[in-house]
Design goal:
Layout (H helix, E strand, L loop, with lengths): L5 H17 L3 E6 L5 H16 L3 E5 L17 E2 L10 E5 L9 H6 L5 E6 L10 E4 L6 H11 L6 H14 L10 H12 L4 H9 L4 H11 L3 E3 L4 E6 L1 H6 L11 H5 L6 E7 L6 E8 L6 H7 L3 E2 L3 E7 L2 H21 L1
Parallel strand pairs: 1-2, 1-4, 2-3, 4-5, 5-6, 8-9
Antiparallel strand pairs: 7-8, 9-10, 10-12, 11-12
The protein binds guanosine-5'-monophosphate (5GP) and manganese (II) ion.
């Protein structure tokens, strides 16, 4: 027999997940460390839909709930990992490319699971689940979940509706990035028809920044540098600044878009000293040009993500990490423009 088409395989996987949901009672939903709108939105969306059909649901994130997403109804359900394993039948890993990015403590509390279902849109996903629903053409895991929930005829309570909108809106840069499709807008329209208040939810998502985020922006601007004839822009955040401004991990979310938006810039990078004594560096990368695949560069250093948005956690110190990554970026830029 020939291999099934990707579309047929995708539908079969959705049916399989439907059977798993039907035949089990307790579920633990996880997503990646340093969760963003798509991670938390996906947890709440699927979680509240499962609760609506009478399932027992636990929402756990290694780093707990970020303050900027606490406005989402249902967000109070997201907790940091308890010390002991939560005895559940099924674990869902959402918006998470590699198993280790779920976090050590979160993985420990998922240890008693019988089945692991991996639902994600990262091209670098390693398919670590027993069942894997991976769609790299989808701009957000929230979009895959909308398709899953509606295909299975599951309820979409207001908590899930709003969470899916925030998941998609934040992962598409407000419906702007190239991965945004007609289907993405159709889903948003569907959510509005189901009662979503667009003005209110966007205002809560984008107009409620803490003042310290602007102080962070000021500090970052002081480190901004252009290189490679203006094709590459980067800035960095030192531990000292984080402490001085009492920053939280979510405060830098999306700020990289400011330097990505500079005319002529094709690659933007954000280097950040992570708290803790290991001296690790987090790198955030964005590309504006399909010929420069930042996911490929990230994979060289053990990171991952998407072609136009990727990230790395790597050993420091900051200056050494910057030199290594910027070198790889400039090589990629060179080869993209000489081919
Ligand atoms: P961000 O720069 O917004 O943190 O991440 C951009 C994209 O790259 C996201 O899809 C995120 O999941 C992925 N990403 C960020 N950091 C890492 C990392 O350390 N490892 C992997 N595998 N993916 C990452
Ligand atoms: Mn995502």
């Amino acid at each position: 027999m020939s291999d099934p088409t990707p579309a047929a395989e995708h539908s079969a996987t959705i049916r399989r997940i439907g059977d798993i949901i039907q035949s089990h009672q307790s579920f633990l939903l996880l997503s990646h460390v340093r969760p963003d709108g798509d991670a938390i939105g996906s947890q709440i969306a699927l979680g509240c839909s499962l609760i609506a059909i009478g399932k027992t649901v636990h929402l756990v994130n290694e780093d707990g709930l970020p303050e900027n997403l606490a406005f989402l109804a249902g967000s109070h359900l997201v907790t940091p990992p308890p010390v002991d394993p939560i005895g559940v039948d099924v674990v869902f890993a959402l918006d998470n490319a590699t198993e280790s990015r779920l976090g050590e403590a979160a993985l420990k509390c998922a240890a008693d699971r019988r089945i692991l279902v991996n639902i994600d849109h990262h091209v670098s996903n390693t398919r670590y689940g027993d069942v894997n629903l991976i769609d790299p053409t989808s701009p957000a895991t929230g979009q895959i979940l909308y398709e899953l929930i509606t295909a299975l005829g599951m309820p979409l309570p207001p908590e899930s509706r709003d969470a899916i909108y925030v998941a998609i809106s934040t992962d598409t840069g407000s419906f702007q990035y190239p991965a945004t499709t007609a289907r993405t807008y159709e889903i948003a329209a569907g959510l509005i028809r189901r009662g979503l208040d667009v003005g209110a939810i966007n205002s809560k998502t984008y107009d409620e920044h803490p003042y310290r985020r602007l102080e962070l922006m000021r500090a970052l601007l002081n480190t901004l540098e252009l290189s490679a004839d203006g094709l590459v822009a980067h800035w960095d955040l030192r531990e000292r600044t984080r402490v001085e401004l009492a920053l939280r991990p979510e405060d830098s979310e999306g700020l990289i878009d400011t330097i990505r938006a500079i005319r002529g810039v094709q690659v933007a990078l954000f280097f950040e000293e992570l708290p803790g004594d290991e001296g690790k560096i987090r790198v955030s990368m964005r590309s504006k040009d399909r010929r420069i695949d930042v996911c490929r560069i990230a994979l060289e250093f053990g990171g991952g993500g998407h072609a136009l948005a990727a990230g790395i956690r790597m050993p420091g110190p900051l200056e050494a990490a910057k030199a290594r990554v910027l070198d790889a970026v400039r090589r990629a830029v060179d080869s993209a423009f000489t081919d």
